[in-house]
Specification:
Layout lengths: L21 E9 L3 H4 L21 E8 L9 E4 L6 E4 L5 E3 L15 H12 L7 E4 L5 H12 L3 E6 L2 H10 L4 E4 L5 H8 L4 E6 L3 H10 E9 L20 H4 L3 E4 L9 H13 L7 E5 L4 H7 L8 E5 L6
Parallel strand pairs: 6-7, 6-9, 7-8, 9-10, 10-11, 12-13
Antiparallel strand pairs: 1-2, 1-4, 1-13, 2-3, 3-5
Helix pairs in contact: 2-3, 2-8, 5-6
The structure holds NADP nicotinamide-adenine-dinucleotide phosphate.
């Protein structure tokens, strides 16, 4: 488990703005479980963070000054320049968004990377009306949107999360048919009660024992969306895989890995569909907002303690330049 001592908050001077550059003040930044993987050395699908260098990640900011025709002061943009209050970027590193959408942090959650992960996951295994879909990490950023989208597709949706408050949120606010607290008893037993006839799809956000339970609960020809494995992100050595993997053979299951970046060429389709649901009031954007860059590390570490309901975001206090 990382600690605050692994991070340093530093103040630096930005260079004067050059032609084709834009100065942006961040309004919100994202903290995400995948950033934990970037703290490990070695090759992965995304480069590791460098010791002594600023971190990066998703952010929403406001243009303060621009020497590029594409942007003007007051424009709101998304970027990958999180973990800092101000930055200078090139136009191709910024994505203009509507400032009319409220809250703007929705572009880090339901209408951002995590919402797109939920949407892409359901597409990956062709989730359709009538499917019984089980989602772990269901009250988090990806999970709650995945559940809401599955309900909009006409599925029966079951979610698990780590507290009574989260279970209530899933049932009362997100429309899940069933939700349970995975901390009060083995998932395999709770699934037997909540889905006695089994499940068709498992949206895996946590891995480990929960994946093992889902392998038991899946019906023949069931599908698994392998999205995340947060239960193991802080393990010191890799845990052995599920003991019941043989279910894949006997039940002819399909398990597909998902990396949301592979879906970026379908961003317009995502924005049209999921943005449409959001604007029509059919999709709830739930977030946990922590204020101030000095709280960013606590927000990030909080993900591994379940401190968030919905998307964890950091809001920046207005600062003096
Ligand atoms: N493949 C991709 O492209 C992609 C993209 C985005 C995210 N992801 C993955 O999707 C998953 C969810 O990401 P997110 O951004 O939506 O995060 P999140 O669910 O908003 O936050 C993490 C949540 O994980 C749960 N958790 C923490 N430790 C756990 C443990 N040991 N066992 C079970 N649950 C635990 C906590 O909720 P509880 O209180 O319920 O425990 C916590 O709130 C992560 O695994 C992430 O890496 C994958």
């Amino acid at each position: 488990m990382p600690t605050a001592a692994n991070f340093t908050l530093a103040r630096t001077e930005l260079a004067p703005l050059q032609d084709r550059q834009v100065l942006v003040r961040n309004l919100f930044m994202s903290v995400d479980p995948y950033m934990r993987g970037r703290m490990n050395e070695g090759k992965s699908y995304i480069p590791a963070f460098e010791l002594g260098q600023p971190l990066d990640g998703g952010a929403v900011g406001e243009v303060v000054e621009s020497r590029a025709g594409e942007f003007k002061p007051g424009d709101v943009v998304t970027s990958n320049f999180g973990w800092r209050e101000y930055f200078i970027g090139a136009p191709k590193e910024l994505h203009l968004i509507s400032r009319e959408v409220k809250p703007l942090s929705v572009y880090l959650g339901a209408l951002g990377m995590t919402g797109m992960t939920a949407w892409a996951g359901l597409k990956l295994v062709d989730v359709k009306a009538g499917d019984v879909v089980y989602i772990s990490g269901a009250a988090g950023a990806v999970g709650n949107v995945a559940g809401q989208l599955a309900k909009l597709r006409g599925c029966r949706v079951i979610g698990s999360a780590g507290s009574t408050e989260k279970v209530r949120f899933l049932k009362d606010e997100c429309g899940f048919d069933v939700a349970f607290n995975y901390k009060v008893g083995p998932v395999v037993e709770q699934l037997k009660v909540e889905a006695p006839d089994g499940i068709d799809v498992y949206f895996d956000n946590v891995g480990g024992e929960t994946l093992e339970a889902a392998l038991s609960a899946l019906r023949p020809h069931g599908r698994i969306i392998a999205c995340g494995g947060i239960s193991g992100y802080n393990d010191e050595k890799p845990a052995p895989g599920p003991t019941n993997l043989f279910n894949i053979i006997t039940k002819r299951l399909t398990m597909k890995g998902l990396i949301v970046r592979d879906w970026l060429d379908r961003q317009n389709e995502f924005e049209k569909e999921v943005g449409g649901y959001f604007r029509a009031g059919k999709l709830k954007n739930k977030e946990t907002v922590v204020e101030g860059i000095d709280q960013a590390v606590a927000a990030f570490l909080g993900l591994f303690e379940g401190k968030n309901v919905g998307k964890m975001v950091v809001k920046f206090a207005p600062t003096v330049r």
